[in-house]
């Protein structure tokens, strides 16, 4: 887990700019620092050291480099996880000097790939996965991407062909951003580094602002909230010819796409057994590390399964868990986390935060996240990683992705009901609705019908119903003309169209919802120099789950994650597997913000607030005052406005 940077100009580059930009992401890799300066026309590449480089490398300092000689630079910050020696230093070169790489992430099956490549004649000097990536690319080219099990964002320079390859893992677990302005191409692990590149402006993207305010959508496309910076798409690679750099040709190529191909030849029991085997293998691979490994434990099925799998695989392992304990009725899962930790004989660590700490740390959190976030739960997650870092942990396992793949949220029951209705299985649909309502609650039954109706109604009707119900808080407070003048198109909610609506929902969630959760995870962990790993997110497990019949995922009585619950029998305590509530990772946001009302009021009158056009801030302020006084019910959209103001202030964002 590290941070990378690339800076390419058609004429020449200033190494001082590279150093300044790379320093912005030092938190991603405080253990080492490295640079590569290249003259692509002459095919000359020279490595350099930085202030944090190991002196045993015996490299010249980058401050001594002549800016007139080079037009391409790599910068790298290392968090040492595998092979802690200097053999893992980056940028790394292949034995023949042809390929150079900067690599952020982990290839968990690197040992198996290394053995395969050795039989093909490749030699290795280290025990790290970076060298395996270099050899794999030399052997198979871009086809190597389909062989990797892991998470990655990397750049490889082929000096002989004068070609630059960029690639990102299938789910976008590891971040990669790029910008092409003024004939300068730059890329990095975080946006804040690219803001140091000359020509990259701090101006907002109106479409991205609209997507965030209306739908809490970020990270769902190549757009970021910065107009000059793009999000490199997950599951893609880009080969850039350095001799003919052209912004119009920056079109990444997909190498893996999330699809759902139904298969009927597994019985439910067989599917559960196969899923159990795959999950245990994933956890086994994700535990490969030369530094201490911990895990985030909420007490839900997914995190409990990870802890249980760790204990099954390693009976004597020192398992350290980190749990956020929420203050507030109906959102605290502490008792379930206790149960899971005790069953796995893990050492527990509990973290609690207050509303005052949110205010004290908000600017830092916003800075680390790069873009706005939709709820204060991100702060609680930030605090969990802080606790792990203080305990000396450098790797954490987390259950991100399980809810999106295995239908963990109540709304997925609506998708299953729609599938039954579209398949004209009306009796089963009625039985499903009644069973789901009986095993959950009357409120859950009503919610099920509403989500099913929302998925089937035309989008225009959905919009009308939202306005009539008063559930259109954002739209009522935006200046639609301002957004329209900038070509903004308001995104419409997903409406499934096929006979298997649940399967469509799951694929769409992985594509549109999961990316922002992975961004939160990456930034919060790396803010504390921790590598976060997500063992649910491998292509083989995702393809397998999405190939199963829908009733395996959401059962006839509305039980979500049905096949995974069965797969974990005997590993995870039955009481946890039998849970029917879904609390999510929540903070007492309403209580926090009402407690902080002087700060909220001050924020809504700040200079940063007044600099943001397209929003009727007088209306927002009036709504806040009436809500605070009890005249209006709480609306979770308040945080989106507050966070947009904080983001604007921290990054000095301009609106045009």
How would you explain this protein's 3D organization?
This protein is an alpha+beta fold. The chain has 27 helices and 18 strands. The strands form three sheets. The protein has a seven-stranded antiparallel beta sheet. The radius of gyration is 25 Å and the shape is globular. The two termini are 36 Å apart.
Protein topology:
Layout: E1 2-9, H1 15-23, E2 32-39, E3 44-49, E4 72-78, E5 92-93, E6 99-107, H2 110-119, H3 129-140, E7 150-158, E8 163-168, E9 177-181, E10 184-188, H4 191-194, H5 206-215, E11 230-231, E12 236-241, E13 253-254, H6 268-286, E14 293-296, H7 301-313, E15 320-324, H8 334-343, E16 347-351, H9 355-369, H10 377-390, E17 395-397, H11 402-406, H12 411-422, H13 426-439, H14 442-456, H15 459-468, H16 473-476, H17 480-485, H18 501-526, E18 531-533, H19 539-545, H20 550-553, H21 562-567, H22 574-577, H23 589-595, H24 597-603, H25 607-610, H26 617-628, H27 638-651
In short:
A seven-stranded antiparallel sheet has the order 3-2-4-1-10-9-11. Strands 5-6-7-8-12-13 form a six-stranded antiparallel sheet, covered by helices on one side. With 656 residues, the protein is an alpha+beta fold. It is built from 27 helices and 18 strands.
Tell me the quaternary state. single chain
Number of strands: 18
Radius of gyration: 25 Å
- In percent terms, what proportion of residues is strand? 5-15%
| Global structural class | alpha+beta
Can you list the strand order of the major beta sheet?
3-2-4-1-10-9-11
Total helices: the number is: 27
What's the story with the biggest beta sheet?
Answer: 7 strands, antiparallel
Overall pLDDT metric: 92
pLDDT < 50 stretches: none
Measured between the Cα atoms of the first and last residue, the distance is: 36 Å
Label the overall shape.
Answer: globular
The helicity comes to 40-55%
